[in-house]
Structure formats: structure tokens, C-alpha cells
Design brief:
heterodimer, A: 98 residues, alpha+beta, Potassium Channel Kv1.1, Chain A, 5 helices, B: 733 residues, mainly alpha, three-stranded mixed β-sheet, three-stranded antiparallel β-sheet, 66% helix, disordered N terminus, ubl conjugation pathway (chain B), ubiquitin protein ligase binding (chain B), Cullin_repeat-like_dom_sf (chain B), Cullin_neddylation_domain (chain B), Cullin-like_AB (chain B)
């Protein structure tokens, strides 16, 4: 199975985020989806739609993916979260198993 | 998500109940159920992972977890029932193939289902203590497919059939086997064990029981072992190819038990091909195989070792007690050495240098060498033979090898003091007759004996060497002082021997020829002049002489003879004919010695410098002796040996024995005193044990003798018996 190096995440209002596969793998949800043996639609196209996640949150999530990889590789910086996003972000995190 | 900034912050509970479409759960489940069907039908590409995940997520979130879970169980079960049917209907060989394919499909589907239901696995399953989706899938597979009544036994029989086929030489699809076995293992080790391994082991045991019975009826031991080894390797290979590694131990145990353990005695004792025959024929390969196979079994090696030991003991016993062998001591010892070499080689080549086998070998040798009381004498004679002539032209390393081997036999001897006695005698003869081939070899052996038995053992032997050396100096000194006045006369070489260091032999007097006795007197006065307070006595029976004789046609020969023979021959300088009586009178050599000496001068063909009248083999007291003018020899130097008894005759043997016994007495007494001095009080049995231990390196004391010594010590008031306990002895300071 050839794996493309990037995946496209689409928010509820249609914004597309193209991120590295590796970054996406931070989410257990995305990891399972992308590595699932039986080809689901997403596994085949590398496009994932999130009808329940807004652009703002998805952007923040993508940022988090990259930050998390850096953090894991030893670069300890703070990840800033605006208070008003907190609740939604937490729900999304739970959903994505991140 | 981590690293959130702390802030006084509160999530309010929903004020109003979220009203959901009551059909919501059913609807959502329909979607998921449909998806599961699609997955099983390989139509997943039309499904959105995100959507399914979201649905499952929401169901769990809205407390429909139970519905989701039980729905999953029902749906999957129905699918597995179908699978089970299709597997069932597969005929013949297709059965395993179908099962394997369906298993692969189920596995894949199960993974996908697990992925979309991940949220349930994460939250609902742990909190309600249910089985996670993946394991649930395996369990359902096990219950509905593998344990389906029409599949369970069929599967087992198919597998066992295939293995049976492979055992009888057919080629089977190992890849398929591996997959199926792997499936059983994936379902849990209990499934593997109960649905396959146990029966597999039973069937194997039966198979090998029958097969080993067949083999043992028609094969000899070597072939049987080859077959057993091959079977064992096959099973190990089988395990590595398609069974659980943990089965290796179990199946090899089965093969070992059925093929080896059950037939061990029969194999070992098999007629014409058993262990004894292997040993006899030096079948290293077969022996090695036997060792490696029997090692796997309890008591296996013990059986082999016991048979080997008793065989060595038996053959060794025959060897040492064979009256034919006893006639030739050198051959006798050589046979022992060969025997030892043979088994050393077997142990190193076939028995992995196993220590226990080496010990068994050693103890067997110790056992049978000591069965023959003459072993110490023979070993010494063997060394004598080697050091006299056997080592010529042999490199130094080889000499060492021979000596080391002899030392090895020496170690087995219980009566080391007897060996010492003989060795001393033989060494004395060698030294005095100048027959030693190599001084280095002699010394090397002494060093070996010393490391083996300590200084005490060899001090006298070393004394003998010292005597030889000082004698040389003395003679040089003698000739430096008196050389001029002695002029042309015979040359005298004297060895001054310290009493005690050398084996005592009764000095037999004789009349030396006038020229010589003069010379001897001169030496005596020279020696006593430099060493006052000593006494010299001539051991004429141990000397040799080189004399020149001229025969008819001016043929000259140098005769190498003993001192006695020299005395006899010198008489013929003045006359050509002498009677026995005359010779006896002139030389005063005791009759037996004289007879021996005359016999060697007159009766040995090719060395008969004298003629005897009448001609006969034995010397009579009325015989006459004539100078044999016609004597001729190819060699200029002629050595005339006395008829020496190399091996001891029966009375001599008795005598040596007695001397040994005599010598042991003070040693035993010394040991008793040493022990009692440190212990003060000791009972009889303990004394015996201690004394035996102390003297073991020299000989094995006889308990009766020890008792006698103790009694003698009591008489001489070194010890006393305890007043109350008669078994107790006290040391009297």
C-alpha cells in the first residue's frame, strides 16, 4: 500500500488542512484510520472530513500535532491555548483520542 | 490535551435533558450494523471511517454502549455461523484452505471493526468489565467456528493426518499448517493445547511406540540409534516450522521416552551391536550418538556408564589375570596402556569428555590393576624396559608422553610402596650397569613421582643419582692421585653406594684376580684416606668388566662380562682346561652364582667363549671347562649376559613381598602415633579410617595389620586402652 506523505483534514465549514502523515499519527483515531487493513474510504484517499469540528479548533489541533512531535523529541515549549477554546478543544481531543 | 492553563473554570451541568430522537439509537446502530456486514463482504471502501467512528462514539456517549456491544456480538456471531457453514461444506483438502482463508478474512474484519469501535473499547469496555472487541472477536471465532461440533474433531484429525503423512515421508503444505496452528495459538494457549497439542502428543507417543518396536526388532543398535536421532531431529524441525516453540520440549520428551528410555536396556545390551560391541570396535560415531541420545533421558548416561564400567572391569580383569599375559610384563603394561588410550579416545571423541565417564574409567582401572598383585612390579619393569632400550631414537616429547602414561597407571596403584621397592631395584641395576638410555628421562620420571607422592617417596631414588655422581668424582680423584703409579694395569671404576639408599643385596664375596685385588686395595686406602670413619664393602655381584681376549687366527674380541665371569675367565689366562671344582676353589664364588655364570659362558650359542665337557645344557659339578679357541663373532664387542631372571621368581617375589610388609610396619606405627598425638583419645574404627587415609598415597594398609601395630604400640606404652570403653585408645605422652 503506497502511503502518501500527507493527509487532508477538512473542517465542518469546509477548510482544508494538509498535514504530514506523521503528524496526523499523533491522534490514535487518525492512526487507526490510516493504518486500518481493510480500505475504508479515508484510508484510500487520505481525506478526512470532520463535520463536527470547526475550523478554529481543527487548526488548533493541527498545531498541537506538530507541537507534540517536537515536544516528544525533547523540545520543551509551552503550548498556548486560548481559554475560550478549551472546552471544545477538550471534546475534540477526546474524540480524536489525542 | 495537556498543558492547559489553569483558570477558575466550571462546567455547568446541562440544565435541560438533551432530548434525542428516540429512534436515534436504532438508526445509528442500523448504520453500524450495515457497515459490519459490508466489512465482512469486502465492501469497506465505500464506508467513511470518520462517520462510523463518530456514530459509535456518539452511541457510547449517549449511553447506548450496551446496545452497541450486544449488537456487535449478535451480528458477528451470525457472520461466524455462516463462515462455519462454508468451512464445513469444504471437502477434503479444501477444508483447511477454506478455514485458513476465512480466518484471515475474519482477522482483517475484526481489526477494522475494532478500529471503528475504538471509543467503545476505550471507555465503555473497561468501565463495564467487558471483553475488548478484538478478544471478543477471537472468542466468538473460537466458539462458533473452531468449536463447532462438525469442525472441531475434523480439524484435529486433519492436522494429525497431515503430520502422520509427513512422518511417513510425504510432503505437506507447511505454510498452511503454520497458519492454522498459528490461529490456534492466537486463540489462546489453552486452545492450542487442548484442541491440538494434547492429542498430537498422544498420537505421537503411539506412533513412536509402534515404530520403535518395529525398529528394534529388525535393526542393530547403531542403526536404531541413527533412526531415533533422525526422528528426533525431524520433530525438532517440525516444531520450528509450524508448531509452538513450547511444544519442542514436550514432543522431544515423547520421542525420547518412546524411542530411547523404553528400550534402553535392550539397546545397550543388544547382541552383536550393543554398547559393548561399539566399545570393542571403536565405533566413535555410534557411541557419540548413543551418548547424545541417552543424555536426554533420565538415567540414560548412568546406564551407558555402568555398562562401560563393567565391560572395562571385565576385560581388564581378564587382561591382568591371564596367565599368558603375566609372562611378559612389558607387553602386559603395554596392553594396559593401549586399553587406557582406547577408552580415553572414546571418551574424548564420543562422550564429550564427560567427567563422570572419566571418573568411571579411572575407577575401573584402579579396580582391575590392583587385582593383580604384580602390577606394581610389572609397571616398574615396563619403565625399566623403556629406559633401557625402548626410548632410543625417540624424541624428548615422546619420552615424556610415555612417562606420563606410566604415571597415570602408577596413580591407579594402591600399593605404591611396592612399586617403589621394585623401581629402586630396577633403577639400581640400570645405574650400575650403565644401561640408562637417557639421564634426562630418568630424572624426569623421578620428578613426576615426586610431584605425585612427595619428597619422601623419591629421596632415596635421588640419593642413588647423587651416589653415581660423587662416585664419578671419586674415581677421577683416585686416578689423578695414583694414575702414574698404576700405569698399564686394568682400569677400575668404583661406584660408592650409600647404604640405605640402595636396595640391599647380600654381598657375595669372591676372590678377585691378583691384579685387581691390588687395585681395589689401593682404592680402598685412597677412599678411606679422604673419608675417615667409613666402611667399604665390595658388591662384586653387581659389577661388570670389559676384558680383551685373543682367539685363534689372532681374532680379538672385547668381552663385556660380569665381575664373576671375569674372575672365571681370568683363570684361563694360565691354562686352557679347568674342572668345576678347580674354578670353585680358585674364585670362591657360591655354587648357584657360579653355575649361572658358567652356564652363560659355555652354554649360550654364539657367546660360548668356553667349552664344556661333556656337552650338556646344565652345569654339573664334575664338568670340565676348556678355553674355546674357535670362538668367533661378527662383532668386535661381545656382551655376555648372565642368565638373569628379569622377572622375579616365585621365592624372590615372596621375599620382596615380605620386605614390603616389614617396611610397612614402621610406617603404620608412625601414622598411628601421629594421629594419636594430635587426637589424644580415639576409638578403634576411627584410627583405622585415619591411618588408611594418611597412607593411601603409598599403599592400602590392611586393618588387621593396623590392629597388630596398635597392640604393639600398647605393649611399648605409646598407647593404652581406656579403662571403661575398651574400644577407646589413649595417647601416652
Amino acid at each position: 500500500m503506497e502511503k502518501e506523505e500527507t493527509v487532508k483534514l477538512i473542517s465542518s465549514d469546509g477548510f482544508e488542512f494538509i498535514i504530514d502523515r506523521k503528524a496526523a499519527m499523533v491522534s490514535q483515531f487518525l492512526r487507526n484510520m490510516l493504518t486500518s487493513p481493510g480500505g475504508f474510504a479515508e484510508t484510500e484517499n487520505g481525506i478526512v472530513r470532520f463535520p463536527e469540528i470547526s475550523t478554529t479548533i481543527l487548526e488548533k489541533i493541527c498545531q498541537y500535532f506538530y507541537w507534540s512531535r517536537q515536544y516528544a523529541s525533547g523540545k520543551e515549549t509551552e503550548f498556548h491555548i486560548e481559554p475560550e477554546l478549551t472546552l471544545e478543544l477538550m471534546m475534540a481531543a477526546n474524540y480524536l483520542h489525542t | 490535551m495537556s498543558n492547559q492553563r489553569r483558570k477558575p473554570f466550571q462546567i455547568e451541568a446541562f440544565k435541560h435533558k438533551v432530548v434525542l430522537d428516540p429512534k436515534y439509537a436504532d438508526k445509528t446502530w442500523m448504520i453500524l450494523e450495515h457497515a459490519i456486514h459490508e466489512i465482512y463482504n469486502h465492501n469497506a471502501s465505500g464506508l467513511s471511517f470518520e462517520e462510523l467512528y463518530r456514530n459509535a462514539y456518539n452511541m457510547v456517549l449517549h449511553k447506548y454502549g450496551e446496545k452497541l456491544y450486544s449488537g456487535l456480538v449478535t451480528t458477528m456471531t451470525s457472520h461466524l455461523k455462516e463462515i462455519s457453514k462454508s468451512v464445513e461444506s469444504a471437502q477434503g483438502d479444501a477444508f483447511l484452505e477454506e478455514l485458513n482463508r476465512k480466518w484471515a478474512e475474519h482477522n482483517k474484519a475484526l481489526q477494522m471493526i475494532r478500529d471503528i469501535l475504538m471509543y467503545m473499547d476505550r471507555t465503555f469496555v473497561p468501565s463495564t468489565h467487558k471483553i475488548p472487541v478484538y478478544d471478543l472477536g477471537l472468542n466468538l471465532w473460537r466458539d462458533n467456528v473452531i468449536h463447532a461440533s462438525s469442525i472441531q474433531t475434523r480439524l484435529l484429525n486433519t492436522l494429525l493426518d497431515l503430520i502422520q503423512k509427513e512422518r511417513t515421508g510425504e510432503v505437506i503444505n507447511r505454510g498452511l499448517m503454520r497458519n492454522i496452528i498459528k490461529m490456534l495459538m492466537d486463540l489462546g494457549s489453552s486452545v492450542y493445547q487442548e484442541d491440538f497439542e494434547r492429542s498430537f502428543l498422544d498420537v505421537s507417543a503411539n506412533f513412536y511406540r509402534v515404530e520403535s518396536q518395529q525398529f528394534i526388532e529388525c535393526c542393530d543398535c547403531g542403526d536404531y540409534l541413527k533412526k531415533a536421532e533422525r526422528r528426533l531431529n525431524e520433530e525438532i524441525e517440525r516444531v520450528s516450522h509450524y508448531l509452538d516453540v513450547k511444544s519442542e520440549v514436550k514432543i522431544t520428551k515423547v520421542v525420547e521416552k518412546e524411542m530411547i528410555a523404553n528400550h534402553m536396556p535392550r539397546l545397550v545390551h543388544m547382541e552383536n551391536s550393543g554398547l559393548v560391541n561399539m566399545l570393542l570396535d571403536d565405533k566413535y560415531e555410534d557411541l557419540g550418538r548413543m551418548y547424545n541420545l541417552f543424555r536426554r533421558v533420565d538415567n540414560g548416561l548412568i546406564t551407558v556408564r555402568d555398562v562401560m564400567t563393567s565391560h572395562i572391569r571385565e576385560t581388564g580383569k581378564q587382561l591382568v589375570t591371564d596367565p599368558e599375559r603375566v609372562k611378559d610384563p612389558v607387553e602386559f603394561v603395554q596392553r594396559l596402556l593401549d586399553e587406557k588410550d582406547k577408552y580415553d579416545k572414546i571418551i574424548s571423541l564420543a562422550f564429550n569428555n564427560d567427567k563422570t565417564f572419566q571418573n568411571a574409567l579411572n575407577s575401573s582401572f584402579e579396580y582391575f590393576i590392583n587385582l593383580n598383585a604384580r602390577s606394581p612390579e610389572f609397571i616398574s619393569l615396563f619403565v625399566d624396559d623403556k629406559l633401557r632400550k625402548g626410548l632410543k631414537g625417540v624424541s624428548e616429547e615422546d619420552v615424556e608422553v610415555v612417562l606420563d602414561k606410566v604415571m597415570m597407571l602408577f596413580r591407579y596403584l594402591q600399593e605404591k610402596d611396592v612399586f617403589e621397592k621394585y623401581y629402586k631395584q630396577h633403577l639400581a641395576k640400570r645405574l650400575l650397569s650403565g644401561k640408562t638410555v637417557s639421564d634426562d628421562a630418568e630424572r624426569s620420571l623421578i620428578v613426576k613421582l615426586k610431584t605425585e607422592c612427595g619428597y619422601q617417596f623419591t629421596s632415596k631414588l635421588e640419593g642413588m643419582f647423587t651416589d653415581m655422581k660423587t662416585s664419578q668424582d671419586t674415581i677421577q680423584g683416585f686416578y689423578a692421585n695414583h694414575g702414574a703409579e698404576l700405569g698399564e694395569g686394568p682400569t677400575l671404576v668404583v661406584q660408592v653406594l650409600t647404604t640405605g639408599s640402595w636396595p640391599t643385596q647380600p654381598s657375595i664375596p669372591c676372590n678377585l684376580p691378583a691384579e685387581l685385588s691390588l687395585l681395589c686395595e689401593k682404592f680402598r686406602s685412597y677412599y678411606l684416606g679422604t673419608h675417615t670413619g667409613r666402611r667399604l664393602s665390595w658388591q662384586t655381584n653387581m659389577g661388570t668388566a670389559d676384558i680383551k681376549a685373543t682367539f685363534s687366527k689372532g681374532q680379538k674380541h672385547e668381552l663385556n662380562v660380569s665381575t664373576f665371569q671375569m674372575c672365571v675367565l681370568m683363570l684361563f689366562n694360565n691354562t686352557d682346561r679347568l674342572s668345576y671344582r678347580e674354578i670353585e676353589q680358585a674364585t670362591e664364588i657360591p655354587a648357584p652364582e657360579l653355575k649361572r655364570c658358567l652356564q652363560s659362558l659355555a652354554c649360550v650359542k654364539g657367546k660360548n667363549v668356553l667349552r664344556k665337557e661333556p656337552m650338556s645344557k646344565d652345569i654339573g659339578e664334575n664338568d670340565d671347562f676348556l678355553f674355546n679357541d674357535k670362538f668367533s663373532s661378527k662383532f668386535y664387542k661381545v656382551k655376555i649376559g648372565t642368565v638373569v631372571a628379569q622377572k622375579e621368581s616365585e621365592p624372590e617375589k615372596q621375599e620382596t613381598r615380605q620386605r614390603v610388609e616389614e617396611d610397612r610396619k614402621p610406617q603404620i606405627e608412625a601414622a598411628v602415633v601421629r594421629i594419636m598425638k594430635s587426637r589424644k583419645v580415639l576409638d578403634h574404627n576411627n584410627i583405622i579410617a585415619e591411618v588408611t587415609k594418611q597412607l593411601q598415597s603409598r599403599f592400602l594398609p590392611n586393618p588387621v595389620e593396623i590392629k597388630k601395630r596398635i597392640e604393639s604400640l600398647i605393649e611399648r606404652e605409646f598407647l593404652e586402652r581406656d579403662g571403661v570403653d575398651r574400644k577407646l585408645y589413649r595417647y601416652l605422652a
